[in-house]
Amino acid sequence: GMILHGNAQAAEALMSCVRMGWMGIIIGPPACGKTTLVRALAGATGNVLREVAVTSDTDTTDLLGCFEQVDLQRRVRGFLASVIASISALSRRLLLSSSGGQRRTEELSAARELDARLSTVRRTCIALQENTPGSTASGGE
């Protein structure tokens, strides 16, 4: 479809919203060209338009759906648990290495440093656990 001269300002405003990733809201009386404008802009820009009929009975959940709450602390604890496992594995590998001389000294030093960092990560996990409502600190992994 074509965009009529009378709708040019509305078309420019809507395109600005699209460029900035904003939701554009078009209002007006019935049959004033709202749908035609959006269809024309979608066609002109090569975008797929998904139309949804909205009535006074339409609820926000009809449009947006339902969202699950995300427990970010649980995700952080899971990530930290994987960091602990990785650091532990690397530290074991360094300690069990069969290198000799200067390289062995460097590996043992690196293993000590990893062990110190591992203690910090474990303390962080315990602190997170203690600060999570409804949980008990176990200190375990």
Helix/strand layout:
Layout: H1 8-20, H2 34-45, H3 60-64, H4 72-95, H5 101-130
Helix pairs in contact: 4-5
Structure write-up:
By secondary structure, the protein is an all-alpha fold. Helices cover 60% and strands 0% of the residues. The chain contains five helices and no strands. The C terminus is likely disordered.
Task: Please bin the fraction of helical residues.
Answer: 55-70%
Number of strands: 0
Radius of gyration: 29 Å
Element order: H for helix, E for strand: HHHHH
Which class of secondary structure composition applies to the elements?
Answer: mainly alpha
Strand content: under 5%
Largest sheet: none
Give the number of helices. Answer: 5
List the uncertain runs: 135-141
User: Any idea what the shape is?
Assistant: elongated
Mean pLDDT comes to 79
Short description:
With 141 residues, the chain is mostly helical.
Summary tags:
141 residues, mainly alpha, 5 helices, elongated
